[in-house]
Amino acid sequence: MAALRNLETGRTAHDAVPLGRSAEFTSAARLEHVSSLAGCAPDHQTASPSATASIWSRLRDRVVYRPLAFAEPAESIELAWAAMAVTPGDVVVGITSSGDVLLSLLARDPAMVIGFDANPTQTAIAGLKRLLCARTSLEGTVRFLGLVSESPKKRLKTWAELKPQLGAGAYLLERYDLGKGVLNCGTTRKLFQLMSLGLRMSVGREGYERLVDPRGTRSERLEVHQALRERVEYRFLVRPILHWGSRCFQHFFYPPALCANSDNPRRALEDIASTFQRLFEVGFHDNPVFGRYLTGEIPVEQVRRLYSEAAWTALRKRIDRIRFETRTIQDGIRELEPQSVDVFYLSNAPDYLRPAELRSLCDAMGYAARSGARVYYLSLDPACPFGRKGVHPAFRRAVEVEGILRQMDPVGLYQYLGVLIRE
Fold it and tell me: Domains in the chain, ordered, with CATH?
């Protein structure tokens, strides 16, 4: 329990992190057109040793993934808060992704928050949210972003007012249908909508209603899960198709570098019901990642940390303490002062990095980390991504903390939740 208190309120003397971004690196096609800027080779070059996998990986990059990968969080903000335990005066560096996790941390009164992302479109959407927080009311923001209903005409009018202040990022965002709300665009929304549709079709109307019922219990949801596994459609249609096509399908749902380094993506798809049993355990109604796609409601934790008046006021008060830059996180960290960073937020970037790139990131973090600095990272694989790729950071694993995070996890999507601490 002491470790849990440390997560929520601070650190012991042994684990002190004197602090000074989910998502998530980009896919190969997006990295191609910014590689000269970010200094990072396209992932698909090592996606798979087989020609078939390479073809599917390239097709995935061009058809499924688009430049705006993450319009909103693909993980739990509350869990990130608990893992990073940011305190006043801290310096936080992380993966930008949608910008939400890093923006929310301003409420913890850090000295500075810096987000790096190799994808300029992610930088643009994070910059848009920063601008909205600085210049627009909370009600105007949620309407413009698409979290609540608003006419396309009014959204486009708001965009016309914001566009001159966004610089080059405005051009990148104008590729999307801003009239329907920018949070209703992008890759992860399409994938999560597809997964939600598949869930509805797989469990039937009655099962679906039980899953999203806010009064539903864990045992009731597991009953639906068991019924799904026994359904004729799942046993003799869905599962055989996924089993047969898993070597190809894995490249549509998992990072190329993970597919090249682990057979878990293929095994996960072959028995998808067992793989994602944790989703049924934690629930769907207010799931921080899937809830909005299933119910149309903003998840409670996003309201608490981003879209409440109290949160909005706290973020706006410190909005000048955050910035976003387009570059790989390892390159960005190398340009910081030595021993200047207290918290590193990696989301599941390690899944996207090849061993040499991950080793480079570890070297950069070792250079910039203060004594006691904390690293928070996720993985879609059940094994630690550092160990799986033969990389050994100069940090120790906070094993007890990782176990507590696993119990707290309200999403159920990521298979590994990791925390490292610099000695």
Answer: 2-122+300-421 (3.40.50.150)
